[in-house]
Automatic annotation (TrEMBL):
Gene3D superfamilies: Cysteine proteinases (3.90.70.10), DNA helicase RuvA subunit, C-terminal domain (1.10.8.10), Zinc/RING finger domain, C3HC4 (zinc finger) (3.30.40.10). Zn(2+) binds at residues 193, 196, 213, 226. Belongs to the peptidase C19 family. Keywords: Autophagy, Cytoplasm, Hydrolase, Isopeptide bond, Metal-binding, Phosphoprotein, Protease, Repeat, Thiol protease, Ubl conjugation, Ubl conjugation pathway, Zinc, Zinc-finger. It is found in: Cytoplasm. Interacts with UFD1. Interacts (via UBA domains) with SIAH2 (when ubiquitinated). Interacts with BAG6; the interaction is direct and may mediate UBL4A deubiquitination. Interacts (via UBA 2 domain) with AMFR; the interaction is direct. Interacts with UBL4A; may be indirect via BAG6. Interacts with NEDD4. GO terms for biological process: autophagy; proteolysis. One of its GO terms (molecular function) is cysteine-type deubiquitinase activity. This is Ubiquitin carboxyl-terminal hydrolase. It comes from the Eukaryota. It catalyses: Thiol-dependent hydrolysis of ester, thioester, amide, peptide and isopeptide bonds formed by the C-terminal Gly of ubiquitin (a 76-residue protein attached to proteins as an intracellular targeting signal). It comes from Grus japonensis (Japanese crane). Pfam families: UBA, UCH, zf-UBP, zf-UBP_var. Residues 318-846 form the USP domain.
Length: 848
């Protein structure tokens, strides 16, 4: 076709063709509805107006919905290299036909294959194709638009350096890194800095094998900076963080480039020091020592390292790529989509969800959930290598790469958007992400039933005044049963004491540590600790109308269809660093908690009267303020630690607990969400002088104004929890502007909240440590699926590492009668599922 003919052909569509501008996101590497990419057989079609990408199965849907006709079709081919004169492949050369910013397929041998990218303009509905480049024949605008689209960077890049979406670049030193042949071998555990004996935040220099501590690297952890000093002395540029090495990669830092980087040759570099990255197993002289001594390292046992695990393929056995500390997301989503209710809600409704998706499906929760569910369950991206296919590919020049596993980049970008933690590149708590996901499911209904209802249950809380013996019963909604670790019930205390003595002796003598001994905790002891009464701090008894001792017990007012049990392994050390209790708990396959069923008000019990505490105003206002200051300075440190464990600055946590009157971590969390954008958010807590508290002091401590009008700051605190302004004002007026009593008043008057219809988009469950929705919306009452309290275990998520700020997550699921391990991209039949080392357990109800 002549140049003029091409110009005339494109004239009707010119108004719909745009040139990508700064800020436009170009999705040229992934379909919005599937995990098809230019590597896929059908390639990807990129809309020349919206810059959204679509696979072959979904391009017609976008054309019918929008009427957009012009697309840029991108396809990457894998070509077998032409043999050279000596019979081998020709030397590797830079491919001038490689212009797509894509990851290469690691399964291919780069010495035998090379990539070739192809771009075409396609005009719908006739599928008329125009090969590119075609500068002479195409209108200038079209050429400019195509060039800009092809050169556009990944849509997941951000300006913020801490964002997880900023893609790491390969280090310039990785390919030519020199490694000294000094005989250094790195043990699987017991690491410490060779200069200061620090055992946290340790980095292995990939040139000489030195193990040294870091200092405020990209993961935010601290040290004495010996790794950096070593670089300045030697110039050895690359180091890998010990404790982050998994079969899919590791955290690598370049001192020379001053940023975290990718090392495409990390497996070879680690093997130089005896670390088998694929098996997470140290080797010496090429021999495995698995048969010599038992595997006790947490990393080895949970990942079942050393065992030849059989890979699993097909529907439900699809792995997920680790995007950089995203294993917590992978583990949770594998467990979620093993549940039939979630499968039906999203994958079962996939055609309807896709047909009614908004014009930008990348920003729609239900679309991305359906896409992820289909990717995991269809088997389309988990195909076993077929011998017949391999033979056919050898006979042809083109190689068809296997699509094993999916990259949930688009899903993570959307689901973490706006969240201060999940949008970062740092490791996160899988339990917190689970609650964050449930919150999004609640806020984005799909179909007539909400799949998250299978986790919902009612908790009955019984609070008793120890002096009057009167009680108060309240109910709340929860999604997770949190079990404390009953360390005092360990059955091997003598072994633990002996191990600790040996460990200290070995450390003093600089010998290798002894074989690890874990505390063995009976699961029944954890259940017992859950059911025991807890003291209520600063309990005000309405029966005595004074502060008194109070205790609270929790029971199940209903049992969920699926019970999620979290083992509270994480605690704080003396240095305020979150640490994990390395324990073994005999978690049962079958669980009966019917004995924890709530019973309600019992005969002979007398309820506490619904009376608010009186406000005592001293004669001297200064004395009143002085009393307030003395009382308020008593900050609940346990709440501070709970918040700090979630990653918030310590000073911000202290201010949150202080300004919410020690009402607990749940209320303080809401204060953090409402104030985290303020410039002094992380500044130290400053107590205002007496002369400065006329307004702020009244709002914080609940003092009574002359007109009894509630102070705006305390109204804002209640609103930040998801309640309407009029309800907050009404509660404060009824309780003389006392924040604590106002909250109790709201919870004891749910009928008023139903009338106020609080906005669901403000009631974020992540604003509550336990995701407890304390008051239900709507007139139908709580959505629960009550039944028997007998359950069977079908999955668990395990954490490896010392704290929530680091480590790795793995998921085990029971499918078709056998256990399967999901370790990011690796999906294998499990031989020895480590059920005693889990962090989050998933049970389903046994039909009665």
């Amino acid at each position: 076709m002549a140049a003029g003919d091409l110009g005339e052909l494109l004239v009707p569509y010119m108004p719909t063709i745009r040139v990508p501008k700064s800020g436009d996101r170009v999705y040229k590497t992934e379909c919005a509805f599937s995990y098809d990419s230019p590597d896929s057989e059908g390639g990807v079609y990129v809309c020349m107006n919206t810059f959204l990408g679509f696979g072959r199965e979904h391009i017609e849907r976008h054309y019918r919905k929008t009427g957009q006709c012009v697309y840029l079709h991108l396809k990457r081919h894998v070509i077998e290299k032409v043999p050279g004169a000596s019979g081998g492949a020709l030397p590797k050369r830079r491919n001038a036909k490689l212009f797509l910013d894509l990851e290469t397929n690691g399964d291919l041998n780069s010495d035998d294959f090379e990539y070739e990218d192809e771009a075409k303009l396609v005009i719908f509905p006739d599928h008329y194709e125009i090969s590119l480049p075609n500068i002479e024949e195409l209108p200038a605008l079209v050429t400019i638009a195509c060039d800009a689209l092809l050169s556009a960077k990944s849509p997941y890049r951000k300006q913020e350096p801490d964002s997880w979406e900023e893609e790491l670049q390969a280090s310039k030193h990785a390919k030519t890194l020199v490694q000294l042949d000094n005989g250094v071998r790195i043990p699987p555990s017991g690491w410490k800095c060779s200069k200061c004996d620090l055992r946290e935040n340790l980095w292995l220099n990939l040139t000489d094998g030195s193990v040294l501590c870091g200092k405020w690297f990209f993961d935010g952890s601290g040290g004495n900076g010996h790794a950096m000093e070593h670089y300045k002395e030697t110039g050895y540029p690359l180091a890998v963080k010990l404790g982050t090495i998994t079969p899919d990669g590791a955290d690598v830092y370049s001192f020379d480039e001053e940023e975290p980087v990718l090392d495409p040759h990390i497996a070879k570099h680690l093997a130089h020091f005896g670390i088998d990255m694929l098996q997470m197993q140290v080797t010496e002289n090429g021999l495995r020592d698995n048969d010599i001594k038992p595997r006790v390292s947490e990393w080895e046992v949970i990942q079942e390292a050393g065992a030849k695990l059989k890979p699993m393929y097909g529907p439900g056995y699809t792995g997920m790529k680790n995007l950089g500390n995203s294993c917590y997301l992978n583990a949770v989503m594998q467990a979620i989509f093993s549940i039939p209710e979630f499968q039906r809600a999203y994958v079962g409704n996939l055609p309807r969800i896709f047909d009614y998706s908004p014009l930008d499906p990348t920003q729609d929760f239900n679309t991305q959930m359906a896409k992820l569910g289909h990717g995991l369950l269809s088997g389309q991206y988990s195909k076993p290598p077929m011998k017949s296919e391999l033979i056919e590919q050898v006979m042809k020049e083109e190689h068809k790469p296997q699509h094993n596993g999916i990259s949930p980049r688009m899903f993570k970008a959307f689901i973490s958007k706006g969240h201060p933690e999940f949008s970062s590149n740092r490791q996160q708590d899988a339990q917190e992400f689970f609650l964050h996901l449930i919150n999004l499911v609640e806020r984005n209904p799909v179909g007539s039933e909400n799949p998250s209802d299978v986790f919902r249950f009612l908790v009955e809380e019984r609070t008793q005044c120890c002096q009057s013996r009167k009680v108060r019963y309240t109910e709340r909604v929860d999604y997770i049963m949190q079990l404390p670790v009953a360390m005092e019930a360990a059955t091997n205390k003598d072994e633990l004491i002996a191990y600790e003595l040996k460990r200290r002796e070995a450390e003093a003598a600089r010998r290798p540590p002894p074989e690890l001994v874990r505390a063995k905790i009976p699961f029944s002891a954890c259940l017992q600790a859950f059911s025991e009464p807890n003291n209520v701090e600063d309990f005000w008894s309405s029966a005595l109308q004074a502060k008194s001792a109070g205790v609270k017990t929790s029971r199940f007012a209903s049992f969920p269809e699926y019970l999620v049990v979290q083992i509270k392994k994480f605690t704080f050390g003396l240095d305020w660093i979150p640490k994990k209790l390395d324990v073994s708990i005999d978690v049962p396959d079958f669980l009966d908690i019917n004995h924890l069923r709530a019973r309600g008000l019992q005969p002979g019990e007398e309820e506490l009267p619904d009376i608010a505490p009186p406000i005592i105003i001293p004669d001297d206002p200064k004395d009143r303020m002085t009393n307030h200051f003395v009382e308020s300075l008593d900050i609940d440190e346990s709440s501070v630690m709970q918040l700090a464990e979630m990653g918030f600055p310590l000073e911000a946590c202290r201010k949150a607990v202080y300004y919410t009157g020690n009402l607990g971590a749940e209320v303080a969390f809401n204060w953090i969400i409402a104030h985290m954008e303020e410039p002094d958010f992380a500044e130290p807590l400053v107590i205002p002088a007496f002369g400065e508290v006329a307004s702020s002091g009244a709002s914080v401590f609940g003092a009574v104004g002359l007109d009894n009008q509630p102070p705006e700051e305390i109204v804002a605190i209640i609103i930040s929890m998801g309640f309407q302004r009029n309800l907050a004002i009404q509660a404060l007026k009824a309780t003389n502007n006392n924040l604590e009593r106002a909250m109790e008043w709201i919870f004891s008057h749910p009928e008023l909240e139903e009338e106020s219809e609080p906005a669901l988009d403000m009631m974020d469950m992540e604003n509550n440590v336990n995701a407890n929705i304390l008051a239900e919306t709507g007139l139908e009452g709580p959505r629960i699926k009550d039944g028997s309290g007998r359950y069977e275990l079908f999955g668990f998520i395990s954490h490896m590492g010392t704290s929530t700020m680091s480590g790795h997550y793995v998921c085990h699921l029971k499918k078709e009668g056998r256990w399967v391990i999901y370790n990011d991209l690796r999906v294998c039949a499990s031989e020895r599922p480590p059920k005693d080392l889990g962090y989050i357990y998933f049970y389903h109800r046994i039909p009665s």
